[in-house]
Each structure stands twice: as structure tokens, then as C-alpha cells.
## 1
Amino acid sequence: MLVAIDEFCKQLVRSNPAAMAEWLLGLSGVEDYAGLIAPGFNWQLIDTELAAETQRADSVILHAGTATKPNQLLHLEFQSRPDRQMPERMLEYWIRLWRLHSKPIHQVVLYLRKTNSPLVRVDELQVGETRHRYGVVRLWEQDPLPLLQNPALLPLATLARKAGRSTSADAEHLALVADRVAAIKNPVLQKEIAGGCHLLAGLGFSQELINAYFTMGILDDSVTYQAAVAEYTRRGRLEGERQGEQRGRQLGLKEGERQGEERGIHQGIQQEAQSLVLRQLPRRCGQLSHEQELAVRALPLEQLEALAESLLDFDGPEALDAWLAI
């Protein structure tokens, strides 16, 4: 689930780099960049691969600059969980981006899920005389109004200012977001934004409350979400191929290498199919029991694919139990 959210956030930036950049650079704490925020400025997503060992930043946006403002980069990292290594990672990203582009770089870590961990308040690395600072945005502390005013940012609005709200206030907040989604005139865009709201809201709300305002199964129709899943699948297969190649080289035999590659690819596909089924089942059957989850994880690839088709007709946990008993 968290991997799909990470991929969705990257897809969101790819689709709306200007909206994301202008919101982040307009937040308190980055006033020095206010001069970059104006209609008509050209925000352009650029390649995020930073080195030969294929280390990638989440999103990097290039601001084309003006006669008085030089070209600048906005580097974004989306985090669903705290990461103790984040300061070192941000410094490493900065160095690699500077070597590639030699342009001023503004970095922001966007934390999505509310947490009391002190790690989400760390915004610098300081070791001896070395000091590197970057921006930190905790989404649950942000004013939802700017996000509600831009359709492209409505998925992020679901998680803004949730801290301390009552259950009734949660419902009112999701209802407000749903109303803004319903007001989108373009049906394709409306479906995309609704799918994103459904996905990201899962980091802060119960599934029952989310389903009350956003249609179940809408992610299946979301091109942006499916693109995120496809990217996740592609990476899983590449990782499977890489693991297979390593096993093959260790065997030292050409046949062993071929078998290792095939096994790695199969494992990558198996893991992706398993992950997709376990994400979809709660929408049809409610929260799975521990026994049900173990039974699903034990299924071979062929049965996982069959379950992925059958679960569309499930209407409760009994349907899953009946299917597993066959």
C-alpha cells in the first residue's frame, strides 16, 4: 500500500509540477522563493536518476527562470514514515543534483502520515563544520484551504490539518473534499482526483469513512493510480531480473543464470500480484483476519490471478472463505 502511495505521489507531481511547486514554495519558511511564484512561469519535471548506480530522487522540478531569477531546481521527497537517514539522504541528493545541473536547489521533504516521531522535525544535517539544511512539510499541520482551491492538490487536502479533529470533524473534512471533487467539470480529471483522494485518505481515515465519500473501486478506473501500479510492477520485475542475474553469476553456469533470471522475474510478479490482491480484498470483504491473509499469501501465482478476477463479485468475508475452500 505504501509503495503504491509513493508511486501515486510521484505521478501526481509528474501531472501537475507547477501546482505542487507553487504550493510548497508558498508555505511559511520558504519566503525567499516567493519571487518564483507567479502565473506563467515554466515548471518542468526533469529526470530524477542521479547516478550510475541508479539512485533516484522522488521528484525534481526545474524552474525555467527569468531575466532576474536564475534557473532553480525544486527537489521533493514524499515520506509516509520517518526515516533516521533522511538528513544524509538529502545531502547526498543535493550533491548529485548539483554535479548534474549546477543550479540552485531547494529541497523539501513532505511527510504524509501524522506521527509524533521527532524525526519528522529534523531539517538539517550538521557534522562538525558541515551543515546542510532542507525544508520539511508535515502535511497534517498545513492549512487545507490552498490545497482545496486547486483541483490537482485535492488528494493532499484529505490529510491537511487532521490532527486533533473529532470523528464528526473528520467526516466534515472528507465531505468538503468530496464536494470539491464533485465540482470538477472534466469527468476524466474528476475520476483521477477522486482516485487519489481515496488512496491518500487511507493514511489518516478509516476505510469505512473513506468509502462513504469516495466510491469503492474507483482506483481501478484511475489512470494515474494504474500508472503508479504499473511503475511499481516494472520496478518489481527489474528487481527480479537483477536478483536472477546475481544468482546466475554465483552459480557460474549459463543455465544457472537463465534459471535464476526466470525465478527472479516470477518472484517479482508473484509479490506484485499478492500485494494488489491484498489491497483490493478489504474493499470487498472488509478487514481480513490473520488467517485469511496468511491463506492469500500462500496462494501460487495462478490462483492469485484467479482471485483477482473473482473478488470483484465478493460481497463480504464469507465470499472469500468460500473461494479459499474450493
## 2
Amino acid sequence: MDSAISPDRSALGSTPGGIPLTELPVTSAKIVIAGGFGVGKTTLVASVSEITPLTTEAVMTEAGSGTDPLVDGSTKTTTTVAMDFGRLHLAPDLVLYLFGAPGQRRFWFMWDDLARGAVGAVVLTDTRRLADSFPAVDYFESSGLPFVVAVNRFDGAPNYADADVREALSLSPGVPLLWCDARSRLSAAQTLAALVEHSLSLEED
């Protein structure tokens, strides 16, 4: 796993046990959150980040409705036009830097830059539009970057058996399939932890 010792830990506070984080060597890891348009990437970063997340949201207009179609009933009014950024201490000595990638085709050229130096990726998906996840799955499979697929539990979205989702996305047997609620800090953190474990297991192999 690519890692680095954080040079500035003065503002990180302390662990639940009272150990100052400034006394611990901190390993940092870059994580990419990818997926189709409107699958909840910005929501996941915002829900789990321990800092106010950096977002690059633009207001959606009627003129763009044909370019960025939403599922029926969606209340989404903005869209990411560059990236989202957040930070999470997954453990006292492990900090994750989260980079949410834009989902629209016209922004795919940014994926190479966002993925550079990352240790893994979460491909977030929506069972109402699984096909929107194909480009992200294909990208990380071809790049060799470890990734997991996380199905975001949207209200009213259909539930499918894991085997059916895996078949629909043509996932390799070694790619973990998870279910999460991007609005939940705990659920989002568990998804990120699963990705880190998966990346570490591949390194050990």
C-alpha cells in the first residue's frame, strides 16, 4: 500500500483513549469514490468526513436535463463538476483522504489524476441504474487499482440478491460487493474499512 507519514498532526486531537494523535506515526492513504451520476458519492464523503468536506457543486439547470438525467423522484439539484474531498481517521494511526470523482462522461478525463497514488476505490452504485456503474468498474479493472462495489440503499430502490448484482455488473469473483447507506457515517466508514482490508489482502498475496 502506498503510504506517507503525515508531516502535520498538530490539529488532530486525541484518540478515544486519550492518547494524543501527535504522538502516533500516522499512515495516510488516498481513496477514490467513483460511480455513475447521482449515486451518492458527494453524500458519502460528506457523511463520513471529519472535516468540512470540499465540494465543487454546480446548480443543475433545465438546459442540462438531457445531459444529466435523474431517476424519477430524485430531489438532486446540484452536481459535482470537479471532485469532492474529505478526511477520515479510520484508526488513530491511519488517515484516509477521500476524493469523490465526478460521474458524468464529460468529466471522465479527470479520473486518471484522481486515481494517481490511490490505494483503492469504492464504486458506488444504485440498483435502479446499475448500467451507470459499468464505466467505473471497467476503469478500475483495467487500471489494476483494488476496488470494492458498494450498493447505496436508496429509499424505494429494488433489492436484488448479491449474485444477481454481481452478474449484472460482471464482477470478478475477487471484487467484494457491499451494501451501504451513504447517508450514514457508520455505514460509510464500514465501507471504507472493507476497501482498506481488501487492498491489504491483495498486497499480502
